[in-house]
UniProtKB/TrEMBL annotation:
NCBIfam families: modA. This is Molybdate ABC transporter, periplasmic molybdate-binding protein. Molybdate binds at S30, S58, A142, V169, Y187. It comes from Acinetobacter pseudolwoffii. The complex is composed of two ATP-binding proteins (ModC), two transmembrane proteins (ModB) and a solute-binding protein (ModA). PANTHER family: MOLYBDATE-BINDING PERIPLASMIC PROTEIN (PTHR30632), MOLYBDATE-BINDING PROTEIN MODA (PTHR30632:SF17). SUPFAM superfamilies: Periplasmic binding protein-like II. The keyword Signal applies. One of its GO terms (biological process) is molybdate ion transport. Belongs to the bacterial solute-binding protein ModA family. Keywords: Metal-binding, Molybdenum, Signal. GO terms for molecular function: metal ion binding; molybdate ion binding; tungstate binding.
């Protein structure tokens, strides 16, 4: 038994998992499925690398990085929070690479039969009962895009008191799936992930700023060769691009 323990201890100490280089990527909640798949694929190809993803709203992640959280890569759902980290000297401007595009859509529970017309002359507030869910408009990127579109269409003021702000697009999706909100505003990629909601409309691109996903190495990540290589894989690998497209993202043309 003692010999077995000695051998087991030796195996654990030499395990590649224990000695793997770690790459910590902070990624927007809407990237959860794509980055999870890409991370697993990369780890299969690089047994000595361990990818540690952290998913949340871009605003939450940026604040954590600004506060000193350990992170090698930041993959944001908008440019605002990336620029915020530049100002706080956590990211260098030359590291930012706009990579993906998304669309803003209106969702409702799949059994709901409301009809919506995505134009300013449509009385949106009277087209459904109850609440509308979207990301917190003062911080969560999806919520900020939603506020821009609702304002441009003239729908925001009539909805006062009926808007529920959530901490991420995935939270919005869950609220609508459960029927706690009759409609929600999320990215197309999130809507496609659920069989419990349907896309009831697509907000015209002219009603909000372009939904661009930039990626960047943090100052910590610039010193991590494994992080540099993983960042390159995300940006240039045909397999990574296929995964992004599988989940509904559009690739930004350089």
């Amino acid at each position: 038994m003692d010999l077995f323990k000695v051998l087991l201890t030796g195996m654990l100490l030499t395990s590649p998992i224990l000695h793997a280089e770690k790459v910590k990527i902070y990624a927007a909640a809407s990237l959860t499925n794509a980055i999870t798949d890409i991370s697993r694929l990369y780890e299969q190809q690089h047994r000595d690398i361990q990818i540690v993803p952290v998913f949340a709203a871009s605003s939450v992640l940026a604040k954590q990085i600004a506060a000193g959280a350990s992170s090698d890569l930041f993959f944001s759902a908008d440019l605002h929070w990336m620029n915020d980290l530049i100002k706080k000297q956590k990211i260098q401007i030359g590291q930012i690479r706009p990579l993906l595009l998304n669309e803003l859509v209106l969702i409702s529970p799949v059994q709901q039969k409301n009809h919506f017309k995505m134009s300013a002359n449509f009385n949106f507030a009277q087209a459904f009962q109850g609440y509308l869910c979207t990301g917190q408009m003062e911080s969560v990127p999806a919520g900020k895009y939603a506020q821009q579109s609702l304002t441009r269409l003239g729908w925001l003021n009539p909805l006062r008191g009926r808007i529920v702000g959530t901490d991420s697009v995935r939270s919005t999706l869950a609220f609508v799936e459960r029927g706690e909100c009759q409609v929600g505003i999320v990215y197309r990629t999130d809507a496609l992930m659920s069989k419990k909601v349907r896309i009831s409309g697509v907000f015209p691109a002219s009603t909000h700023r372009p939904i661009v996903y930039p990626i960047a190495l943090t100052r910590q990540g610039q010193k991590n060769q494994a992080a540099i290589q993983f960042s390159e894989f995300i940006q240039t690998s045909p397999r990574a691009r296929q995964i992004f497209q599988k989940y509904g993202f559009k690739l930004k043309v350089p």
